[in-house]
Target: Short-chain alcohol dehydrogenase
Amino acid sequence: MSGIQQKVVVITGASSGIGEATAMHLARHGARVVVGARRTDRLEKLVSAIRAGGGTAEYQAVDVTKREQVEALVRLAKAKFGRVDVVVNNAGIMPLSPLEALKVDEWDRMIDVNIKGLLYGIAAGMPVFKEQKAGHFVNVSSIGGHFVVPTAAVYCATKFAVRAISDGLRQESRDVRVTIISPGVVESELADTITDEGAKKAMDEFRANAIPPEAIARAILFAIEQPADVSVSEIIVRPTGGA
Ligand code: NDP
Model:
């Protein structure tokens, strides 16, 4: 299957920001989207909006730190539409803080959501992709997967990990496409998870020059709609003149 029309796309973390904008954008271009996150009230509104625009969408509650819930989301897509073309591993959190603040619970959560959640997405999609002899993982990393800044050591480590896992997967795969999406600063709710006052203040300034999440949605569409023999390995999208 080539292009975007009728492709079945599973998206994690679609209740806000980049995931939500991507679901809207892909559905508007003819994809059938299956969205997951924990806030089902948001997902319900998103799916209603997509359907009101003539698109096709389903949703299910998913905590990506629970392997069986990620598998259930992919199973829902397969049951509804008979195939799964793309899994967008987008769910992520960013509670920044200096390491010496020892917010160990937040380190654990970032590792659980940003790394293990992504691995569970791969584990859920892989058997379907192998059976189909085709599939596409779109893994959302960050410019923080390219360099480290103070207060972001653990977050950046998780985003470096997303790029490492994705690159390994790409090298091992014959039929499966793998795309890393590395956004710069994007308008979203991501900074709301920061509890450290200093990091929050610094991030407010850093995020002043943000681009809308639709900019990332367009990059994801570009990667998906390429012909099957073309694999877009990574796209970095930054605000003009910013990080
Ligand atoms: P948002 O906070 O707006 O969106 C994050 C999404 O992840 C939400 O839908 C949230 O849904 C979901 N999520 C968080 N925890 C879980 C969980 N345990 N299980 C399932 N879903 C979860 O931020 P963004 O849209 O910005 O973030 C999307 C991705 O983009 C992240 O991976 C982020 O690291 C990355 N990114 C963002 C950048 C930015 O500047 N905004 C820059 C670079 C990368 P819910 O709470 O309902 O579960």
